[in-house]
Amino acid sequence: MQFMSRIVAAFALIFSLSSWQADADSGALPPPQGTPILTMTGAIAKTNADAGAQFDAAMIAALPRHAITTGTPWYDEPRTFEGPLLRDVLAAVGASGKTLTVAALNDYASDVPFSDALTYDVVIADRIDGQPIPIRDRGPLFIIYPFDQVPALKSEQYYQRSVWQVKSIKVQP
Fold it and tell me: What is the tally of structural domains in the chain?
């Protein structure tokens, strides 16, 4: 019986992800099926809620994936961060602007130039070393720049833009 319920759950997940991709291809942004972990507001063309555009974990996981291994000031050793590129999340909501105000669960906020998402492979990581990022370890979402791949990014300016426990992004015109 438990085996059958897992199969049914797997098919439900596959169906929801494939229908989300079909919606994304048609220009619509489907509503989240699970608890939202990211809310995007401001200068965006696609919404799915009164508050703007909301993403649950499955929606984030369904976006094209990118992984980078890099050292950071917050971990002793280089770690592998995985998730969608920031530019892909912005494209999913039809964002256009100059500045992204990224806010964390603890209300820390940092302004990130929109151009950073286009210039660098900035990842909105939902996994570290293949594991989901728990809230107590800077999750569920963590903005990571490719510090080791672009050494010029190893500065306080970019470290401050690497918001962890991301809850929202406001796209400023």
Answer: 1
